[in-house]
Each structure stands twice: as structure tokens, then as C-alpha cells.
Amino acid sequence: MGRVPVKEFIEAQDVKVREKLFADLERLVRENVRLGAPFARKLAGREFWELRTKAPGDDIYRTFYFAFSGRKFVLLHAFQKKSRKTPKVDLELTEERMKDYVERSEKRRSKKSKG
Fold first, then answer.
1. What total of structural domains would you count in the chain?
2. For a Cys-Cys bond, which of 9, 12, 57, 113 suits 78, CB 3.0-4.6 Å?
């Protein structure tokens, strides 16, 4: 198994932030695609969503994800938001990870159908 960057990011946070991030992820699992504002929203012009977390001390975190094959959420990127506008580097990294995940999944599916 390769790296798991969202998990690594969350585990690097202090305990109160980790608890809040995990609580919001649990809410996403529980509510599924019905989860909406103010907790989640689709980013305009993008194929992924953001889970919006307000941690103790008014720190703001974002976890980008998408629904894959209608059955599971794939967590792509998480970061602490420090400005009003989401940095371009975070959006580009998320796009790259999503593309990579989809390509690897299609290759696995293709191998299974041939095998």
C-alpha cells in the first residue's frame, strides 16, 4: 500500500483538531451524499467536494473528496485553510490525486476482466 496523505495530515494535528476532523468524516459517512451546507459543498467547476471543518480556536480545515462508483468516498487532500480563497496549489494537487486514483482503478478493473 502506498501513502495515505489525508490520514497522515489528520494524524499530524493536535488531538482536538483530529477529533473534530474525524467527527466530520463520520458525519459524511453517516449522511452520505445527503450531507450539504454548511458541512459540505461541491466546488464550482470541479469534480470533487469539500468537507468543511471548523476546529476549536476557529481554525478552518478542508478535506477534498469525491464519490467513486457511487459506493465510496475517496479522500483526496486535507489542509488548514488560512485565507479566504483556496490556494491554487491545493486545488491542482487534488485534481492530480483524483486523476491518479481513477486511472489506477480503471487499470485494476481492466486486469480483473482479462484475468
1. 1
2. 9
Condensed to tens digits (0 to 9), the pLDDT of residues 9-30 reads: 999 999 999 999 999 999 999 9
Query: Degrees (nearest 5) of the Cα angle 70, 67, 93?
Result: 155
Domain with 24 in it: 5-114
- The number of residues making up the chain comes to 115
Which backbone phi and psi does 4 adopt, to 5 degrees? -130, 80
Which contiguous run of DSSP H or E holds residue 61? strand 60-68
**Helix (H) and strand (E) counts in the chain:** 3, 4
* pLDDT tens per residue across span 48-69: 999 999 998 889 999 999 988 7
End-to-end CA distance of the chain: 22
Contact between residue 22 and residue 10 where contact means Cβ atoms under 8 Å apart: yes
Q: Which of 16, 18, 111 is nearest to 6 (CA)?
A: 18
